[in-house]
Amino acid sequence: MRRIRTAGTTLPALLVAAALALAATGCGNEKDSADDPEPSAPASSASSEPATPDSPVAERIKAVNEGMRGTSFHASGTTTALGGGRQDMWSDPEQGFHMRMRGKDFTHEIYCKNGTTYMSSAMLADTLKQRGQRIEVPDRLADTYVTSETNDGCDVFYRIADTGKPAPDKDRKVAGKQTTAIAVSDGTTSDTYFLQNGAPRLLRMDSTRDGRTSTTTYDSFGKKFTITVPPSDKTMPMDEFRRRVTGS
């Protein structure tokens, strides 16, 4: 199965990587990009001393990433992916991750569990369309979820890059809680993460992609959710899906 290599932790980056994997003409050896992030440390490696607002930024980021991986949560807001729209996310350490995106003309679903991503075939087709490549998804595959292995785990959808820098001019309260702002930027893309002071939680993310902006807020920490990945008869590996759709 072709692995998706992502150069960032955002949904647009993941979608582009998936589209490139589908558009590829073969499954030859892939060279790792120098921009690929290192895998996140497992939750068990958390420091025995909790991070505080005065801790070095790397410690704050690590603590929040580990905290988010280790608890359930819900998130909602706008998105810059696929031309814009709204999204909801649910994450649970045991059950996995689920995202639902809604736009003017679409509703898309994506799941992730144990490092395997399940993307609806319509979502993948729309991603390719945005990149100038149209594919026709046969009716028999319309309800199929295309699977790929992420090299970075399911927290790729919300993880804060370890290149983040403090942005004290953006520190603010979110839902009544004081936060520390961490900024991550690369060219025309930028993300500002708002980390709750006194707890290893991400409360908000503001993103900019080529002039488009979005805001996501995180809530319901520790609440119970039901996340069920698609059954095996509704899934298909990326390589097989490519063969059936493109003939290559």
Explain this structure.
The protein is an alpha+beta fold and 248 residues long. It has one domain: Lipoprotein localisation LolA/LolB/LppX (outer membrane lipoprotein receptor (LolB), chain A, Clam). It is built from four helices and 14 strands. Strands 1, 2, 3, 4, 5, 6, 7, 8, 9, 10, 11, 12, 13 and 14 form a 14-stranded mixed beta sheet that branches. α1 crosses α3. The N terminus is likely disordered. Keywords: Signal. It comes from Streptomyces palmae. This is Lipoprotein.
Main attributes?
248 residues; alpha+beta; outer membrane lipoprotein receptor (LolB), chain A; 14-stranded mixed sheet; 18% helix
Query: Averaged pLDDT, please?
Result: 79
Number of domains: 1
CATH fold naming: outer membrane lipoprotein receptor (LolB), chain A
Judging from the principal axes of the Cα atoms, what is the shape?
Answer: globular
**CATH architectural group:** Clam
Poorly predicted segments = 1-12, 19-49
Radius of gyration: 18 Å
Measured between the Cα atoms of the first and last residue, the distance is: 15 Å
H/I helix tally: 4
Number of strands: 14
* Beta-strand percent range: 25-35%
Biggest sheet record? 14 strands, mixed
State the CATH superfamily name: Lipoprotein localisation LolA/LolB/LppX
Order of helices and strands: EHHEEEEEHEEEEEEEEH
Helix content: 10-25%
Structural class call reads alpha+beta
Kindly provide the name of the CATH class.
Answer: Mainly Beta
Biased composition (Basic and acidic residues): 236-248
Keywords: Signal
Protein name: Lipoprotein
Region (Disordered): 27-92, 229-248
